[in-house]
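YM 10:42: Phage shock protein PspC (Stress-responsive transcriptional regulator) sequence, as discussed on the call
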Amino acid sequence: MSVAEEIKRLHELHQAGALSDEEFAAAKARLLNKEESPGASSDFSRLRRSRTDRWLGGVCGGLARISGVESWIWRLLFVLFVLTFGFGLAIYILLWIFVPEDELIGN
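YM 10:58: structure's back
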């Protein structure tokens, strides 16, 4: 769906009363900002290891934050990759080494 079609659909939802004025404006702004800079701020560039949702290195917690998938599902996927293909541990360790940790806020 093109950006114009998405904006048209948002407008229809707004006219039907499904979206408030604020929701419509925010959704439209997000669509327009995404169109102006596609790929300039990819989700992967925002990947940070979590300081709060972690068992080992916080990799799965960080992946959960940017993907919207629960961290326990990421943990399960890494375990399955270790058991079936053998490279899950290597990927996890590489992410642990090369992905920066969340910055502390308020310190």
